[in-house]
């Protein structure tokens, strides 16, 4: 016979407090709360330029691209925005004259996104302001050595979560009959789907990139050497 527990709220609170895993729940909630407070803080630089956080993130991501242009899928991978959300954001930024869609230099069949001259000028002001604001917040919260440790731990967590996400996507694609047939080149009506081909290529590249990141030594490992 299973052991029954009282249904009183006080008993539940005691039970929760005794769980060994609760510190991990508290850490996860604190991480999410910190992200919310950081993103929605008063006086954030992007507000002064009439941008929301997602729009500013997209502009900065494009500005940091080595070839000064990115595909929508690349922007989605580098930000926290879904592919569907990216389209709406790009439409709004294009309406303000900050970005333009052009034929990709690498693949004439696809389109890339570039900053316009107006977008470049805005980013010249925005990016230093964002960097300065972030620095002020972190310097108030951490000592220099704590900041290094926090950055290393946060990057480690992000890499782990990204790796788990890619593994899940890869497993899903491997289990899909349509994807399996497409990958073998069989006639399933998908062989002309450029979008699926690009997605498979992107997944493989991302898996390879994450494997390389996992092999790379962390800051603490470099110090030990």
Q: Which structural class is indicated by helix and strand composition?
A: mainly alpha
Through-space gap between termini: 57 Å
Q: In sequence order, what are the helices and strands, one letter per element?
A: HHHHEHHEEHHHHH
How many strands, which pairing sense, and closed or not: the largest β-sheet?
A: 3 strands, antiparallel
Low-confidence stretches are 179-193
The beta-strand count equals 3
Strand fraction equals 5-15%
Describe the strand arrangement of the main beta sheet, using strand numbers.
Answer: 1-3-2
Mean pLDDT: 79
How would you explain this protein's 3D organization?
With 225 residues, the protein is mainly alpha-helical. It is 69% helix and 6% strand. It has helices at residues 9-17, 22-39, 45-48, 53-63, 72-78, 83-95, 117-141, 144-175, 177-184, 194-215, 219-224; strands at 69-71, 99-103, 111-115. A hairpin with a 7-residue loop joins strand 2 and strand 3. Helix 4 crosses helix 7 (117-141) and helix 8 packs across helix 10. The termini are far apart.
Summarize this entry quickly.
By secondary structure, this protein is mainly alpha-helical.
What are its keywords?
225 residues; mainly alpha; three-stranded antiparallel beta sheet; 69% helix
């Amino acid at each position: 016979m299973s052991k029954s527990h009282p249904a009183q709220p006080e008993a539940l609170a005691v039970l929760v407090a005794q769980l060994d895993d609760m510190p991990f729940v508290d850490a996860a909630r604190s991480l999410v709360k910190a992200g919310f407070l950081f993103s929605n803080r008063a006086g954030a630089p992007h507000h002064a330029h009439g941008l929301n956080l997602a729009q500013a993130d997209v502009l900065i991501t494009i500005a940091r691209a080595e070839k000064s242009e990115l595909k929508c899928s690349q922007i989605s991978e580098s930000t926290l925005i879904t592919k569907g959300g990216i389209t709406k954001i790009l439409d709004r930024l294009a309406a303000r004259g900050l970005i333009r869609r052009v034929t990709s230099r690498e693949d004439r069949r696809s389109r890339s996104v570039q900053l316009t001259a107006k977008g470049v000028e805005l980013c010249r002001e925005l990016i230093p302001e964002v960097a300065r604001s972030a620095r002020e917040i972190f310097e108030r919260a951490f000592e220099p050595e704590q900041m290094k440790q926090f950055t290393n731990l946060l990057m480690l967590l992000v890499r782990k979560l990204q790796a788990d996400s890619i593994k899940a996507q890869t497993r899903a694609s491997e289990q899909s009959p349509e994807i399996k047939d497409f990958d073998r080149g069989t006639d399933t009506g998908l062989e002309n789907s450029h979008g699926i081909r690009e997605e498979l290529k992107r997944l493989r590249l991302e898996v390879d990139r994450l494997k390389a990141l996992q092999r790379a030594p962390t800051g603490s490992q470099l110090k030990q050497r």
